[in-house]
Specification:
2 domains; Phosphorylase Kinase, domain 1; 41% helix; Aminoglycoside 3'-phosphotransferase, Chain: A, domain 2; six-stranded antiparallel beta sheet; two-stranded antiparallel sheet
């Protein structure tokens, strides 16, 4: 990268940089070994390539000068990182303040992309001899005791109850497979009507309905202030449009939509654990404290951030 302009983009779990080389703009991602092994990164890239080959617009991984998609390197402190480069997604991030994009027509397109990804997931086969991504119950963030303080035993018990309830759900090729798991508006750009998806770092084997629940959760969290009627009204408008687009490419029954609250609660649990893992509790800011308090209250009380008739979406 010597001589190339490099800009730190950020990242919650990875270190992400934008750089410009002789071929144009690129994204460089550094993943710590403690977060993802090299094998997990390899499995992530295999799926991204498969989606791209099926015509889904994604930020594709790039081969480095060594001929590899992944370069594993040690930092000065000895920590091991896995470096991957991706094409730079064209376009812009969609904001709720832009009515030309933030509207039911766009929400349908969002759903279409998600439906196409789930249809592609059903067809995806792990290449022979290659690693695979972990299953939902192997997600490191479900190790609640490692992140949530022991003094919050009631919260941990609530989190465990959510996992137990989900464990009892049935699985089939039509309802369970590899999912993105974080397709919020920060993980795609829009350009001339097209969407380019990126940040597959959380992809894992899960119920497809979890992908839908995660999108609903993130959209309401980021774009609607406060709980209650306003959030529920937006969730219903957004959810109906999202499902109209989704069902053009993949079907989901009302019975599975009724499980969305369970997966919203799972999202509460994993975000609560992740916040404990990442935040400096000696310097908590007001929004961070509010995010923790809201999730703690729901995990203790059995509530969900959205309360609508999901089966009617």
């Amino acid at each position: 990268m010597r001589g190339w302009p490099v800009t730190f983009v950020g990242g919650f779990e990875n270190l992400v940089y934008k750089l410009r080389d002789e071929h144009g703009e690129r994204i460089l991602r550094l993943t710590h070994q403690s977060d993802r092994t090299r094998e997990l990164v390899e499995a992530e890239l295999d799926w991204i390539e498969d989606l791209a080959n099926r015509g889904i617009c994604v930020a594709r991984p790039l081969v480095g000068r060594s001929g590899q998609l992944i370069e594993s390197l040690h930092a000065q402190n000895g920590d091991l990182y896995h470096a991957t480069a991706f094409t730079f997604a064209p376009g812009i991030r969609v904001e709720a303040s832009d009515p030309e994009l933030w509207n039911p027509t766009f929400f349908e397109r969002w759903g279409e992309v998600l439906g196409r990804m789930h249809a592609a997931s059903v067809e995806f086969k792990v290449p022979q001899g290659r690693p695979r991504r972990y299953a939902w119950n192997e997600d490191p963030m479900l190790n609640f005791e490692a992140y949530i303080p022991a003094g919050e035993g009631d919260v941990i018990e609530g989190c465990r109850g959510i996992v137990e309830a989900i464990s009892g759900l049935s699985r089939s090729a039509e309802t369970f497979g590899l999912i993105h798991a974080d397709l919020h508006q920060g993980n795609f750009f829009v350009d001339q009507g097209g969407m380019t998806i990126f940040d597959f770092d959380d992809c894992l084997y899960h119920w497809f309905v979890c992908d839908l629940a995660t999108v609903l959760y993130s959209v309401c969290w980021w774009n609607v202030e406060g709980d209650g009627p306003r959030q529920n009204a937006f969730a219903e408008t957004f959810g109906k449009a999202l499902l109209r687009g989704y069902r053009r490419h993949w079907e989901i029954s009302p019975e599975w939509l009724e499980h969305i609250p369970l997966f919203l609660s799972l999202r509460d649990a994993t975000i609560y654990a992740a916040l404990h893992k990442r935040l400096d509790f000696t310097q908590l800011k007001a929004p961070q404290k509010r995010a923790l308090d809201e999730r703690r209250a729901r995990l203790l009380g059995g509530g969900t951030p959205i309360s609508i008739d999901f089966a009617r979406l």
